[in-house]
Each structure stands twice: as C-alpha cells, then as structure tokens.
Specification:
Blueprint (H helix, E strand, L loop, with lengths): L1 E8 L3 H11 L3 E2 L3 H4 L9 E2 L4 H21 L12 E2 L1 H4 L5 H35 L17 E9 L4 H11 L4 E7 L3 E9 L3 H10 L3 E2 L9 H27 L5 H21 L3 E2 L3 E8 L4 H10 L3 E5 L10 E2 L11 H7 L10 H16 L2 H18 L3 H24 L6 H10 L22 H30 L2 H23 L2 H7 L7 E2 L2 E2 H15 L6 H23 L1 H28 L4 H42 L5 E2 L11 E2 L3
Parallel strand pairs: 4-16, 12-15
Antiparallel strand pairs: 1-10, 1-11, 2-10, 3-9, 5-7, 5-8, 6-7, 9-10, 13-14
Helix pairs in contact: 3-5, 3-9, 5-8, 5-9, 6-7, 12-14, 12-21, 12-22, 13-14, 15-21, 16-17, 16-20, 16-21, 16-22, 17-19, 19-20, 21-22
C-alpha cells in the first residue's frame, strides 16, 4: 500500500469521485486529527454530503422491492448469478425520481395494508367480546334512565347467582339481576337497579368477583354491533384488495427500482468518501491508501483532472493503520475465507495463504478421504462456477470447495473409500463372491485403509503435523532474521530444530531401525545424554535468559524448556485428529451401507423392495455422513491452521482494505 495525498478543484470533485468508484482501488482515510492544531485548521472545513437523504431513499427503494417480492414473487433459477450492468449505468440517476415515486406509492399501499390489518384485528376482537351478549336485546349504549341504572359484566362461574341476587335484594328489593349467558368460566349478567343504590350495588357485586363488561360505549344491540363489525371487516378486505392490486401494478417496474436502489448505494459510497475530505471554497483535500501496482493507472486519472497529488510509503509507525489487501493466485486465493475468519495479517508481515493452502487442502482431503464425497464436492463447485459466475467471497468458497473435493477424491483412492465400502458390499452380493474387493482391480486402492492400518495412518498424521509446524517455524526464523533478531532466531527456532534433529538421530540409532534400513547411526553421549541435545538445551537456556536478570534467568530458562516440551507434545498430538476423522467417516459410512444392504443379504439377492430400501437408507445415511464430515473436517482443519500453524509465526490484527467501489445489492458491475 501507498499513502495518497490529493488536492482537486471543487468543480471537478463529483467527476473525480465517479472515476474513482469505477476503479475501486482508493480507500479514503479520516484526516481531521491531523488538521487539528495546525495552521490548516482554520482554512479548511469538512465536506458535507447528502448521506441522510440517500439512506432514506435507499431504504425506500429496497423496501419497495421487498414488498413487491411478497405480493408478486419472482421465481429465480437455482444458483442464478446477479444480473450485470455497466458502471456508468449505476452512476446515471436520470430515472431515479420516477423510481422513487413508484417506491413511495408501493410503501404507501403497504402501510395502508398494515393499518387495515390492525383495524381488522380490532374488529375481530369486538366481535369476540360481543359473543356472550348476543342473547341480550337491550341497546348496549344505554346506561340507564332518569331513575334507573344499568350494569353489564361477568361473575365467576363458581359463584351461585341466587346468592348474588339475594345479597342485592337486601339492599333494595326492586333490583333485578339477569343472566344473559354463561360458559364454564363466567356468568354474564345484566343488573337493573335504582341510581341511588348503584354505589352499594357495585360494592356488593365486587365482593362476588364482578367485572364490568368491555362492551360499554356501543350503540345498538349486540347482534347489530356484530353485524356492523362484520361489515367493517368486509369493507376493509375490499380496501386491502385494492391496495394489493395497486402494489401488483408496479411489478413491471421492479427491475427499475432494483437498479435505482443500487444507484443510490453507489451515491452513498461516494458520500461516505466525501465526508472524510476537507476543503476550501475552491479546492478539496483528500487522503487515503492505494495499492502500489495501481499508482500509475491512478496517476493518469488525477492528471486528467489537474489534481496535485503525491504518494508515499507508509512509515513503520503507521503500519497498524495501513489497510491490508491479500493478493494471491487462483490456488492460494481459495484460502482467503479461512484467513478472513481468523484475522488478516498485520501490515508488513507474511501473507499465510501461499504457505497454508497446500496443507489445508491436503489435511481436508485426508480427513474426508472418500472418492464419492470428493466427486460430489467437485461437481458442486463446477456447477457454482458455471451457473453463478461467482465473485468475491462466493468465488473463494467455490474455489475451496473445488480443491477440497479434488483432494478428498485423491485421498479416497489411497484409503479405499467410495461412499465408504459401498462398491465392495454391492458387488459381493451380486457376484456371490464374499472376497471381492476393488483393490484387486485398481492398483494402490486402499493402501492406507485407516481401519486396517490405523497405526501407519496415525504415524503419518503426526509426521505431517511435524512438517507443518516446522514450516511455520522456518517462516518465523526468516522474519526474525530480516528484522535483525538473529540471536532470537538461532537460540529459539535453531535450538528447537537441533532437538528435532536429535530425535531423528536417536530413532536412527535404534536396533529395530537397523533391521529395516540396514544401518544405524551412532550418536555421541555426555553422561548418557546425546551431544546434540546437550547443545540444544544450552542454547535454549541461554536464549531464554539472555535478557533476564538475576534469578529471573533461571526461571526464564526452565520455563522455556517446560513450555517447549509440553507445547510441542500437545501440538503434535493435535494432528492425530486427521486419522480420527478419516476413520470415523469411513466407519459411519460402512455402518449405513451394511444396514442398507441387510434386507438384500437376508434374501440372498436384490429384489424391488430391497433395492428401494437400500437406496433410501443409502441416500439418507450418506447425506447425514457427508454433511457431518464436511463441517467437522473444515472446523478441525481450521483449528490446525489457526492454532498449531499460525501460532508459530502469524501476526494478526490487519485492517481490511475497503476502497470506494460499487457495492450494490441487486446488480454487479461488468468486469472489463
């Protein structure tokens, strides 16, 4: 990356931003803190934009498209790519006002539909509340006469109304309590009494659990009010149908609104960049970051607008703020997803993808290790490439799926798995030969079958882990050496390599190795301790304590040895998961195959029913096993990279490069 400083004429700012968003390689940075306290503070002001208005427009347009999708859904092809358009098209806002009017009309109709739904719900509630009062012929709006008072309400069903009536008559014998209706929980009653007795009557009823009715304030009988509410619901339904027709009438304008939404999104990106600039009445000051390889191309654009500009290499103190953009080939680019899930490397350090890609893809293939599963992944990736024409993260995922599928299929050959042992079991039953195997026809098939050679597979997994970790150490050794920490590189990585060499020489000195190789190595000893190991321990002790003082030298030295011994032992054992997952996937698949073929084995041959049973169990079982394996293998492979490998050299904390570019939801810009 290079730091960019740019001064442009205000009159050309809009045109310049339009060109920069199409190039997609300039990230604008905030410079307010650098201006404060300088002479420029009083001369320049922050540029304003219409961000709030643009956000409102974008929300209206995307909301209108979503609403159209609800009422007039469009059937899209599976894995269909986004439609493409030219960059200039997204910068042409000539038809934006028409699209906004359409969006506002759609959202207005949708808002009315929401209010209609709320009113319908309220009317249904009214109808439900009137059900207990349908037998009552009295006007619900009447609350009494000049002398009499009326009360409507409910009394719990467990209460005997005779007792209530008797209590009321003790207050005034002329009071009348009528039961309108009842259910298993409530008695719905109608009370008629003298107005002067109303307070006493209310107090008496309260003692029996009386609750006033919610149907007060209505005019007409319960049946009349119910009919009115039902008519209101019918009117609202008709109005809602009109609103739906209004929305559906804009279906032909869907693509125009989608394009308009992406146009506004482009304007929002430009406005965001604009807000990070400062200027005077005549000029605008911008700063940012650009990829070094695009400098010449950008220079031609800046010269076209008579800009004053310069670039500079970032200073080491600026590294934490310098954005990072990973640049890899088609093979190593597939690991961008893995790196982004962890953290981008800090600027000025090593991009781990070229180092990690061979190991990640190999480990994944060994863990899955099935030709059938590998073919499914490979075909799936090819379909994605052919149908979706993916970009960005989707393309990275498809690349990783493709390479992982190829690796899985190749490793499946050496482990002897094609949907586990499906071929062997089927052919044995059909041919009647219980000893038939694919390995007898395909050389090399199943030479590392994890069920038969589990120890060899386990040892191979640990050896691969040892190689993996040493690559990480080698990278760290080179990084330290380049930074001038040669002593640290020698006394830490160098000492660890010497210990590893001691282990290899010790293994070669064993009698059992001599029987295999025909020779053995003689290692010199000092009081029974191999000479290289003594040298390595001295190097580690000195290196760990060289910067400590006093007693701290001793604790640092022994702490280093303890951490090395336990850390390396634990890290190497972590690679045994390669064998474990390889074995687990094969065994689970074999179990499903065995269960699926059992009906045919019991009959001695395949029949229509046994074939159907076999296909059903085979498909369901292997779908579950495939899904579980692809997730488990990815997670465990990721763990080996992020903990065991990255722990040896990786420096994270990189800030992602976010240039000014098109970022539409519905369209993608054609690639030149």
């Amino acid at each position: 990356m290079k730091k960019l400083r740019l001064v442009a004429l205000r009159s050309r700012k809009e045109e310049l931003l339009r060109d920069l968003i199409q190039m997609g390689c300039v990230e604008f940075r905030e410079i307010e803190s650098e201006i404060q306290g300088t002479e420029a503070e009083g001369l320049v002001t922050r540029e304003s934009s219409e961000m709030m208005r643009l956000k409102s427009q974008h929300a209206a347009l995307t909301g209108a498209v979503t609403t159209l999708g609800k009422y007039v859904p469009v059937k899209s092809k599976l894995l269909a790519p986004k439609p493409e358009c030219e960059g200039q098209t997204l910068l042409d806002d000539s038809d934006l006002e028409a699209a906004m009017r359409d969006a506002e009309a759609i959202e207005g109709a949708e808002d009315r539909i929401r209010r209609i739904a709320a009113e319908e719900s309220r009317q249904r509630g009214v109808i439900e509340s009137l059900v207990p009062w349908l037998p009552l012929d009295a006007d619900l709006g009447v609350e009494g006469t000049g002398r009499c008072a009326v009360m409507k309400g409910s009394i719990p069903g467990r209460v005997k109304l005779d007792e209530v009536d008797a209590a009321l008559r003790q207050i005034n014998e002329e009071a009348e309590l009528f039961r309108v209706s009842a259910d298993k929980n409530q008695n719905y009653v109608f009370l008629l009494c003298m107005k002067e007795d109303l307070p006493a009557m209310q107090e008496c009823l309260r003692s029996f659990g009386f609750s006033a009715s919610a149907v007060t304030g209505m005019n007409g009988t319960a049946r009349e009010c119910t009919a009115a509410a039902e008519q209101t619901i019918r009117d609202l339904a008709a109005e809602r149908a009109d609103c739906v027709k209004t929305i559906e009438s804009y279906a032909a304008r869907r693509e125009a609104m989608m394009l308009a939404a992406d146009k506004v999104a482009a304007r929002m990106s430009m406005a965001e960049a604009e807000e990070r600039c400062f200027g005077t009445e005549q000029a605008v000051v911008m700063e940012g970051w650009i990829p070094e390889e695009r400098e010449e191309e950008l220079g031609k654009v800046f010269d076209k607008y008579d800009c004053a500009w310069e670039t500079a290499e970032p200073e080491e103190g600026e590294y934490p703020t310098v954005p990072v953009e990973l640049k890899n080939n088609n093979f190593t680019n597939s690991l961008n997803m893995v790196t982004n899930m962890y953290s981008l490397p800090a600027y000025g350090t090593v991009d781990p993808n070229p180092l990690m890609a061979p190991f990640f893809i190999l480990f994944f293939g060994l863990m899955m290790a099935d030709v059938g599963y590998g073919l499914l992944m490979t075909i799936g990736a090819i379909v994605i490439f052919k149908t979706m024409k993916p970009r960005g993260g989707t393309r990275v995922f498809a690349q990783l799926l493709l390479y992982g599928g190829i690796s899985t299929a190749l490793c499946g050959v050496i482990t002897g798995g094609f949907f586990s042992d499906a071929i062997d079991q089927v052919v044995r039953l059909v041919s009647g030969n219980p000893q038939w195997t694919v390995a007898s026809y395909i050389p090399g098939w199943g030479i590392l079958n994890p069920q038969e050679k589990s120890i060899a597979v386990l040892v191979g997994s640990l050896v691969l882990g040892l190689i993996h970790m040493n690559v990480g150490m080698a990278v760290n050794f080179v990084m330290r050496w380049k930074k001038g920490d040669k002593a640290g590189a020698i006394f830490e990585e160098g000492a660890q390599w010497l210990i590893l060499l001691t282990g290899i020489l010790w293994a070669l000195s064993m009698d059992m190795v001599e029987g295999v190789l025909g020779f053995k190595v003689d290692i010199g000893n000092i009081n029974g301790i191999p000479v290289p190991l003594c040298a390595a321990l001295l190097m580690m002790l000195y290196g760990a304590g060289r910067e400590a003082k006093g007693f701290g030298k001793i604790t640092a030295a022994f702490g280093c040895i303890y951490n090395f011994a336990t850390g390396w032992f634990g890290d190497i054992l972590s690679y045994s998961r390669i064998m474990a997952l390889m074995l687990a996937g094969g065994v689970i698949g074999q179990v499903f195959n065995t269960v699926a073929i059992m009906p045919a084995q019991n009959a001695g041959k395949f029949s229509v029913i046994s074939v159907i049973v076999f296909i059903l169990i085979f498909l369901v079982g292997h779908a579950l096993n495939f899904g579980l394996n692809i997730l488990g293998c990815f997670v465990h492979d990721l763990r080996l990279q992020c903990l065991e490998f990255f722990g040896k050299f990786y420096q994270d904390g990189g800030k992602p490069f976010r240039p000014l570019k098109f970022n539409g939801k519905f369209y993608q810009v054609k690639e030149n």
